[in-house]
């Protein structure tokens, strides 16, 4: 397939807009315009491709929702774009995620006998090839630009992750009616994908209804995005989201036979409340900087939370994860597993399931190299002695 590199500049963006405007003045027929639009319709790449080709095609697919910047650090044109891929306010929470993770360094060690490390882990009874899972992400229309259908997106994320030996994810979008959520689950069940499901902090009865539907789809675990409670004032009409009390957390834990993981934990005291509620796990997350502006980065708060939990529940973390070294950093800071969001979404738009598998395998390969060069034979061998935490 012929591929043209996209020149990423404001001048070219403006030039493209001007060209489109000029075309409208030529007097072409509606049929000709429709035919031309169909011929130029951008679709994801398929088959053998490079990661850069996937990223370039994702840029075509997703602009202006996401510009697929050379480095996704919260400082691109997406600042403040929510819905979209930006962060709240000035995107400082998004930037803090990137900056706090970038500031952590790895201690290189080369006097040992590690040659071929084992990157696999056990995730609640399911063996996966690496300690990274797709973060539940939704809103193909209002967050991603609408170029992929719901079914295409679920197939891309879950199919690609499963190809790479890890878990995909399905989200319960805050503005999505129940039937949209059900269709995502039907796609999971129809294809037999192994995945997790992320739920919003709706009314208790609504969460429990979605839990039962997820159980029927054969998923591995559930998360509840407690950090989405900050969107309560902006929730779609008829879609209530709210903070949860410790008693409500306990009620949710008892409501499902599946492992329940509470997402959006940023302080040791709230981690303790989740443990006391019987949570199977927590996700240290500020929702990608997309709910509360000006939070610290997840890498900055993770060590204190991990020390407080002290192995009493499974700890996950997210926040600008893009490389295998990022995975090792987060595990060295105290996580058991990681979530990747924005980069998996881009990979899905650039190359469907092939693009997602390409990105996931890239992460695994980079993690394996990092483990060799820090002396970790297994994921469980990764510890805080392998990282340098800034003071």
End-to-end separation: 49 Å
- CA-based gyration radius: 21 Å
Order of helices and strands: HHHHEEEEHEHEHEHEHEHEHEHE
Number of helices: 12
List segments where confidence is low: pLDDT < 50 over at least 5 consecutive residues: 1-28
Mean pLDDT: 89
Principal-axes geometry comes out as globular
Given helix and strand content, the structural type is alpha/beta
Strand content: 5-15%
Please estimate the helix content: 40-55%
Count all strands and give the number: 12
Q: Layout of helices and strands, plus pairs?
A:
Elements: H1 10-23, H2 30-39, H3 51-62, H4 92-103, E1 105-106, E2 121-123, E3 126-128, E4 132-134, H5 150-163, E5 168-171, H6 178-191, E6 195-199, H7 204-216, E7 221-225, H8 246-254, E8 260-265, H9 268-276, E9 281-284, H10 298-309, E10 314-317, H11 324-332, E11 337-340, H12 342-374, E12 387-388
Parallel strand pairs: 4-11, 5-6, 6-7, 7-8, 8-9, 9-10, 10-11
Antiparallel strand pairs: 1-12, 2-3
Helix pairs in contact: 3-12, 5-6, 5-12, 6-7, 9-10, 11-12
